[in-house]
Write a structure and sequence with these properties.
42% strand; mainly beta; 7-stranded antiparallel β-sheet
């Protein structure tokens, strides 16, 4: 066991002990606590602490809450908090992650609401939520030889890392690129931060692998090769043993593929892929049967894709060589510019077409439909909000390097890929630094 693992285990044990004492205290109080009386109003007095970040333990004071936490809901703005226990006059809750948009100082002013029965009550004083954004390195060694070293994460090293996916168990799948011979010795590895381990899954894929996607079961990954009809799949059900498959034309269909860069999983059960020639296809994952959806989606550019979480018919595409982000509605066939200036590279934060990118690649969307993009040649991670506002999350535009830390000091060197896990942690494929980085926005 290395130092990092020992430290994590020690911290986790302390957290469990503290939580046990708090729960024990609340449990003892519950035995003599005040049951909820629907004939009386709930009254609110105060809460403490009055500020904090994600997972802050907050005590809410008042009267007539009742002692059954399953009958109590607490919201920070519109984001539900975890209610751990209640004594009738004290609620023990945990603040949720990022309950709204922050101001210029990364502060969110939260109105705390308590719901008991069918009544909603709100504290008059807001809770001050501090957003903390920080990058750390999961694994990889800057400047290491282009060789594979697997094992614990401290010793793990690999060639340039391109694109990522993450499953329900926090297994990260990374495509690796061979710099010396484009069509040889490209690889896929698995990294698990929780278990402090890395594994080589595919020692040589032939053609480079591009942006992977997870099947909607959260335990099966599909990865397209750079050209041709081939792709790879792996599942936890077969211990991540790789299987090479090929796209097959559906009845009455033909497949015309030059290069393909990205699979995107739709909520309709199909995977979607756009070839560099601008043709969009949908694929039945289990059979490989392929049907053309449309053509004319900005041919001549690489592209990386993801579906909206809130609007299942909307597919977002980052057109790398044209430096812009588009949406495509698979129901109406509407293809619309979201952000950037088609054909012009640069760096500007702003709204929609007033913003500029420089070779945007893999993109992901979080639970709020905020989009995060690896803006490769600007060396930063950008964000596009649902209303089209583009901002820089972390990194220093135009400055390449390697540095962990907060947004004002962190540095990347041509990031290619991003993925997001179920806790909202974003992982970054930092190509030239040969690292997988971890971005926590809390």
């Amino acid at each position: 066991m290395n130092f990092k693992s020992s430290k994590l285990i020690s911290c986790f044990a302390m957290f469990l002990a503290t939580g046990a004492m708090l729960l024990s205290s609340c449990s003892d109080s519950n035995e003599n606590g005040q049951e909820y009386d629907p004939s009386k109003p709930v009254t609110l007095s105060d809460f403490y602490p009055d500020s904090g970040g994600v997972a802050t333990k907050v005590i809410l004071n008042g009267e007539n809450f009742g002692t059954d936490p399953s009958q109590i809901k607490v919201y920070f703005n519109d984001k539900e908090a975890a209610v751990i226990s209640s004594t009738g006059n004290k609620i023990y809750a945990i603040s949720p992650r990022k309950p709204g948009e922050g101001d210029d100082k990364n502060i969110i002013h939260c109105n705390i609401k308590v719901v008991v029965g069918d009544k909603v009550y709100e504290y008059t004083k807001p809770f001050t939520y501090q957003i903390q954004t920080v990058v750390t390195t999961v694994c990889g060694i800057v400047g290491a030889p282009d060789e594979i070293v697997m094992g614990n994460l401290a010793q793990t090293s690999f060639p340039p890392v391109t694109y990522l996916a993450v499953d329900n168990d926090n297994n990260i799948f990374a495509s690796l690129r061979n710099r010396d011979s484009y069509y040889n010795n490209n690889k896929v590895i698995l990294v698990n931060e929780d278990e402090d381990v890395s594994r080589l899954l595919i020692p040589d894929t032939g053609a480079p692998l591009n942006q992977p996607c997870m099947l909607d079961d959260g335990k099966t990954v599909y990865i397209p090769t750079d050209n041709g009809l081939d792709y790879w799949t792996m599942s936890s059900e077969n211990m991540w043993s790789p299987i090479k498959l090929a796209m097959k034309p559906n009845t009455g269909q033909t497949i015309t593929i030059d290069f393909k860069h990205s699979f995107a999983m739709g909520q309709d059960g199909y995977m979607y892929i756009r070839a560099k020639n601008g043709i969009l296809y949908r694929i039945e994952p289990l059979t490989g049967l392929t049907t053309q959806v449309t053509s004319g989606l900005m041919s001549g550019s690489d592209s990386y894709m993801a579906f909206s979480r809130k609007h299942p018919n909307i597919l977002y595409l980052a057109y790398t060589n044209n430096h812009c982000i588009y949406s495509y509605d698979i129901k109406t066939s509407k293809h619309a510019l979201i952000a950037g200036i088609s054909g012009k590279s640069g760096y500007i934060d702003g709204n929609g077409a007033s913003a500029m990118f420089n070779e945007p690649r893999q993109l992901i969307l979080d639970e709020n439909d905020d989009m995060y993009i690896a803006d490769t040649n600007n060396h930063v991670i950008r964000k596009v909000s649902p209303d089209g506002k583009v901002s820089t999350v972390i990194g220093q535009a135009g400055k390449s390097g390697y540095q962990d830390g907060s947004p004002d000091v962190a540095l990347f060197n041509r990031p290619f890929g991003v993925c997001i896990n179920k806790e909202g942690i974003i992982y970054i494929a930092d190509y030239e630094n040969q690292c997988i980085r971890r971005l926590a926005i809390e």
